Amino acid sequence: MMDVTLHRVKYYETDKMGIVHHSNYIRWMEEARMDFLNRLGCGVKQFEACGITSPVVSLSCRYLASTTFDDEIAVRVFLESYTGVRLSFGYVMTHNGTGTKVLTANSSHCLMNAAGRPVSVKKYFPALDIELKRLAEKKKEQED
């Protein structure tokens, strides 16, 4: 499953050169990831209600083309892998008008309790665990 979130570039997201500052792409990735998890029925609000956080463990971006004020960017997010504790997401951003690919990226996250210890998704969110396992298996099948 590849989920799409649309983002219209705001003026304040651009720099003195008139292009989007690189840090904003990471924000858009987070917006898309939050939308993705919400569509699966278990977003960050549910995590936090149980005292669970989802910190970024790793992040990698490849910037391919610039974007500017008022561009509409399609942020595609998909589950790359899932271990029961760790989730990895892939991202592809394209200019919605031209189809130009502007960024590819991935991020990894784990779920942690208030004491900073990793927790099992299955223990707190069994339905989400089932869906993430299904998506990870589907992704693996597509790669084979």
Explain this structure.
There is one protein chain. By secondary structure, this protein is an alpha+beta fold. It has a single domain (2-143), classed as Thiol Ester Dehydrase, Chain A (Roll), CATH 3.10.129.10. It has helices at residues 23-39, 44-49, 121-124, 126-143, and strands at residues 2-8, 56-63, 72-82, 86-95, 101-110. The longest helix has 18 residues, at 126-143. It is globular. 23% of the residues are buried.
What is the topology?
Blueprint: E1 2-8, H1 23-39, H2 44-49, E2 56-63, E3 72-82, E4 86-95, E5 101-110, H3 121-124, H4 126-143
Would you give the CATH topology?
A: Thiol Ester Dehydrase, Chain A
Helix content: 25-40%
Please give the domain count.
Answer: 1
Tell me, what is the CATH class?
Answer: Alpha Beta
Global structural class? alpha+beta
Strand content: 25-35%
Distance between the termini: 16 Å
Element-level helix/strand string = EHHEEEEHH
Shape descriptor reads: globular
Query: Count of helices?
Result: 4
Q: Tell me, rounded to a whole number, the average pLDDT.
A: 94
Sheet of most strands: 5 strands, antiparallel
Q: What is the CATH homology-level superfamily? A: Hotdog Thioesterase
CATH architectural group? Roll
The number of E-state strands comes to 5
Question: Residue ranges: pLDDT <50 for 5 or more in a row?
Answer: none
Strand line-up in the sheet with most strands: 1-3-4-5-2
Radius of gyration: 16 Å
